[in-house]
Amino acid sequence: MSSRATMPFHDLNVAYTTNHADLSSTLLFHAELGYSVVAIAVGVAGKLPSVPQPVPVSSLTVPQSMTILTRLTLTISDASQNHRLASLQPHYDLISLRPTTEKAFQLCCSSLECDLISLDLRQRLPFVLKFKTVASALQRGVRFEICYSPGIAGGNDGRRNLISGAAALIRATRGRGIILSSEAKDALGVRGPYDVINLAQVWGLGQERGKESLCEEAGKVVRLAGLKRTSFRGVLHVLEGGNHRLPVVEKVGKSGPKAVASEPNSAAPSDRETSTGAERDMGASSSVKRKASSSSITVQQSHTNAAEDDGLSKQELKRRAKKARLEGKGWPHNGHVKGSTNGFPIKHQALSLPKKKN
Description:
With 358 residues, the chain is an alpha/beta fold. It folds into two domains: 9-232, TIM Barrel (Alpha-Beta Barrel), CATH 3.20.20; 306-339, no CATH class. Helix content is 39%, strand content 17%. The strands form three sheets. Strands 1-2-3-4-5-6-7 form a seven-stranded parallel β-sheet, sandwiched between helices. Strands 8-9 form a two-stranded antiparallel ribbon. Strands 10-11 form a two-stranded antiparallel sheet. It is elongated and about 100 Å long. The N and C termini lie far apart (104 Å). The model is unreliable at 1-5, 248-252, 259-300 and 330-343 (pLDDT under 50).
């Protein structure tokens, strides 16, 4: 079975309510529809709160087959007031920005640290979505979110604005980097995964891209957000328990075995030997040209080794062979001429000495 068929369905936007019984029933309905990962979102408008609002996941009834994430959805109109986004990342699994002006939208796409950009499609967008602007966000790994529940429950105007806004976003992004979420406040606003895929197909997203927006793209958002919080720039992973001391290793030298205490950050002897052998192999093959296929690498290595044994490059051997043919001399297959020390034929010429004057 392929990994595409086993990818779980995601709903990364379920509105948090203080009525935990209704929220628990909404999560249970998600599990019945086939969702495996659900994010409970807290909405904040205006200035950032000094103390982040917690999401009491422990007080909810969560199905065993479901993974619950926490999310902050921040509505911004003036980006200069939101300069503490990095301090909120440890408190939430996902951070989403909802810009209301064109300037705030450009800043969210270019520089603000977030995981998602969620547009309020219940109302008509006050600005035009451009490919150059959204492409800068896609290059940074930021995805765009379309929420279908508020538009469906908003009457005719809400449905009209949802269709026009979703079509404009799909056209601007070329159908890439889009996820579909519900933003449902109760179980009535939730739709099944394949119903959402068919709805996205009406907007022009396509059936395959619609499924990716619920599975692959949403999974990438979760994984990238986890890397931001547990690693340094997505390269160095933070591990716990790395300060323990390794056992003493006996090192055999010329004068006999010596006991060497391993430092906490030192590698094991097998690792050092493996890395040393890899470095030798890397140094030995550094002078060999790299090709795309393995067969070409083998042929290139054989020619290069022959040229290295003779002390001459392949181009120089060809040049000398051509010169020898023009002079009527034979050129052996090993690249050397008989009676030659450096691969060049020896010419015997009589030198005439100048006569001395009496």
